[in-house]
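Researcher: Structure for this, please.
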Amino acid sequence: MAIRRFLAVSILLSCLAATCYGEVHFSSLKDHKNLVVETTNIGNKDALKAGENDIVLKWSINPNVSSTTSSAYKKVKAKLCFAPISQQDRAWRKTEDSIKKDKTCQFNIFEGEYNSSNTFTYRVERDIPTGTYFVRVYVYDSNNAEVAYGQSTNDAKVEPLFTIKAISGRHATLDICSVVFSAFSIVSLFGFFYMEKRQAKQK
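Model: Predicted structure, token format:
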């Protein structure tokens, strides 16, 4: 009986340990802002257009980070993140301390092996919604856990930021087609009534 209880407790503790290990909180990375991240807008300085304009993303390791610490870095992921101004009254973009539950950074823009510095050009994808954004880069260890980060804005996430304008979904070609089909429908309707009336007179 005692052995069974011991096994049950051991399994429970193992599960809790695995859960805790997998739940990385952003607050635990506050002292590990080890990447310097910069973004440059290409094609439009005011508002980037989804599907048209590019962002040049650059990151490098903070020179104060020791080589011993950075030796644990294995992978990086860059994410497009909503600024606070684009999160207001939008629960589906809410910031959570748990990185797994956090909805601030919903769009992956780069994933690859860790390098102490890198440059990547990102074409804003067509499904990115209108909003104000910044970029955050997470660093992962061999266990695929977040161990460090860097972002293109300050801690308050108010500057620097950039704006993206989503595709409206309306195109000139579609508008022309809709007008043509509407006109055709009206003409067809009048033609139908004319033929009906003519057949009625012939009878």
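Researcher: Any notable elements?
Model: Confidence is low (pLDDT under 50) at residues 6-20, 170-175. The domain at 22-165 is CATH 2.60.40.1930 (Immunoglobulin-like).
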